[in-house]
Amino acid sequence: MNYEIELRHLHYFRVLAEELHFRKAAERLFISQPGLTRQIKQMEEIYNTLLFERGKRSVKLTEAGEFLKQEVGLIFNQLNNIQTHIEKISEGKITNLKLGFIGSAVQTILPELLAKLKAKQPLIDVTLNELSNEIQVEMLLKNELDFGFVRIENFPTAINTHPILTENFALVVPKNHTLSTKKKINLLDFKDESFILFSKQYSASYYDLVMSIFRDHQFEPKVALRTVNALSIFNLVSQGLGIAIVPSSLKKGYNADVNFIELTQIPQRTTLYLAWNQQNRNPGIQTFIDTLKEIKK
Asked: Rounded distance, CA 290 to CA 174, Å?
């Protein structure tokens, strides 16, 4: 049969791959169930492979189907990005940039960077989303974000990075803590304390880096609570529920009743990176990178 794959095929496939039920998928698509079956059969004939395994009571994707599901998701996401950029251009705007960030980016370079960008290109629209490191990387790979501000040590090969700031860690303690005014701090002095840490969901590599600090001091921390939000950590510390270790830059911009003790004597440092997908064709990508480089000169 001499068929060619069309967008409608991919759209039908995507809906069925989500529903894994021919009747429900057909209802979503406003077509008949036999019509949907016919379209999927055409795709399988074109690709010369089964995309779905059909049972009496179940439908599931084959290995080829799983691969196609991922690729189709990228295709439709790119089509949505194209539409967004065309709409912005038609409004007289250059583009839209979708940025992900973690809290420490707001306390360091992000405000200055956005102000400089708006001064250079006032018609660029910017959307900001505070997200964990891991989710940002996932979204960058799918082109659902244009840039991410992350603390991760190992990146997928498709992701380009630019280091922004390498800094010390700081110990966060309540204002009235007996050791908060001590001139020379040894982390071993706090080994009996409860710790409140960024969870592994924030960033697996960041979490491992923090845990290496405890390993170097030869004790296992009693972790009372984990979260992905810096302000939550500071509020919990101020209430006496534990102490924390965070990047030093987080002492800026938060009005919390805590003290920060910089851990300059330990070798561990943490780096904030700008990350983006090297395949991303958003016309605003280079403008954003150039603006960052101007700030860092």
From this structure: 41
* Cα–Cα distance, 205 to 211 (Å, whole number): 10
Q: Is 283 helix (H, G, I), strand (E, B) or coil?
A: coil
Residue 142, CB half-sphere, CA atoms under 13 Å: how many?
Answer: 15
DSSP for 74-89? HHHHHHHHHHHHHHHH
pLDDT digits (tens, 9 = 90+) for 218-271: 999 999 999 888 889 999 999 999 999 999 988 887 778 899 999 999 999 999
Residue 210 has pLDDT above 60, yes or no: yes
**Structure token digits, residue 276:** 């983006």
Query: Can you give the pTM of this predicted structure?
Result: 0.69
How many angstroms separate the Cα of 243 from the Cα of each of 76, 123, 173, 191, 205? 46, 44, 5, 11, 21
Instruction: Give the containing element (helix H, strand E) for 224.
Output: strand 222-227
CA distance 87 to 159: 27
Q: Which two tokens stand for residue 289?
A: 């990178």
Residue 83 lies in a domain: no
Distance (Å, whole) CA 10 – CA 99: 29
Q: Both 228 and 176 in a single domain?
A: yes
Handedness of CA 177, 180, 185, 187 (dihedral sign): positive
Domains of the chain: total: 3
Q: Are residues 278 and 156 in the same domain?
A: yes
